[in-house]
Amino acid sequence: MKKTLATMLTVTAIAAGPALADDDCFVPMAKWQPREAAASFAAAQGWSVRRIKIDDGCYEIKGRDADGREIEVKLHPDTLSVIEFEYEDDEDDDEDDDDDDDRRASPVPPTPSAPTNGLLGTGETPQVVIK
Q: Which stretches of sequence are listed as region Disordered (predicted)?
């Protein structure tokens, strides 16, 4: 009986893990830092801000980092800690990003050359011998 109870509690805890690790912010509006504080935080990080909006109860900043790469950052509205940081050119598994794949040019890999160790220098196909 104790093993069954322990097993059930473990399975329940594992199943609840993804729900507890959600990136939504549940903070009363009275505790929120002002939008200007989020903009100041972004400026202190070296980010140029294009837009600040509220998404899933968090501040969402879209702009560019100090290197000029497009970024999307979710900030906790009370502590202004970074909850999620994405580079916009990173590939996601999100369904709405699938249409971006067609517009990206895929780089052409360089043609590999034969090693200079003499093993494949003759241009002949290597032979496999099974004993």
A: 82-131
CB half-sphere exposure, 89, CA atoms < 13 A: 9
**Residue 110 banded pLDDT, cuts 50, 70, 90:** low
Angle at 75 between CA 70 and CA 81, to 5 degrees: 115
64 inside domain: yes
Q: Please check whether residue 86 is in contact with residue 72, taking contact to mean a CB–CB distance below 8 angstroms.
A: yes
- Tokens 């790469």 appear where? 69
What is the domain range of residue 88? 54-92
Question: Residue 38: inside a domain, yes or no?
Answer: no
| Cβ atoms 63, 71 nearer than 8 A | yes
In a 13 Å sphere around the CA of 117, the CA atoms on its Cβ side amount to: 2
Domain count, the chain: 1
pTM, 2 dp: 0.53
Q: Which amino acid is at 55?
A: D
Residue 32 within any structural domain of the chain: no
In-domain check, residue 129: no
